[in-house]
Amino acid sequence: MVLKTLLEEALAREGWHLPGGAVEGLVRYSHEMLRWNQRINLTALTQPAEVVEKHLVDSLHLLPLLRGSRRLLDLGSGAGFPGAILAMAMPELEVCLVEASAKKAAFLQHAALCCGLHPRVQVRPLFARGQAQEERLEGFDTVVSRALMEVGAFVPLAKAYLQPGGKVLAMLGKADEGQRPGLESLATTQGCHLAEFHCFHLKPSGHERALACFKVL
What we know:
By secondary structure, the chain is of the alpha/beta class. It has helices spanning 2-14, 22-37, 48-60, 83-89, 102-114, 132-135, 151-159, 180-189, and strands spanning 71-75, 94-98, 121-124, 140-146, 162-173, 192-201, 208-216.
């Protein structure tokens, strides 16, 4: 009940409204993650308030950037952030979670079944190398990652899995408006344009975050 209360308070603070059953699904997912975390290393954050703020709410900040998206690829999904969380909040979204760690991939497969996300959410236990056809990871309209690698390496990797006109979403960690010129330059060299760049603070901790959306030309 603590997790649910904290999540409901966080959603009210942000002014967000999730579809029916999403809150319960997110709470169940979090409980399963914490239960598995006692056996395998999924997250260093185990306090309910930290899980809600730095995993759930952090992931949900991507929702405005997903308007119009139908097929999402989450590279290096780890414990399912942000891909599984976004799937819970967007029932129309098909999601593929790619995770090289067999143990983490096993958790993701369990959680997808346990939380009613399968078959809309698929798990692929592999190391993404940008070989979309060989890896059977083609035709996504959006690719996302949280802290998989430095953004300059992530954008060209993500592009390999996109259909024309697709989007690359990068969760950049600490917010810094000074990053914008470098991101615009990166976009130009990669045949993209920087469609959106947002800096924000997580509440209530005040931790800084930044999101970049690259649109493939």
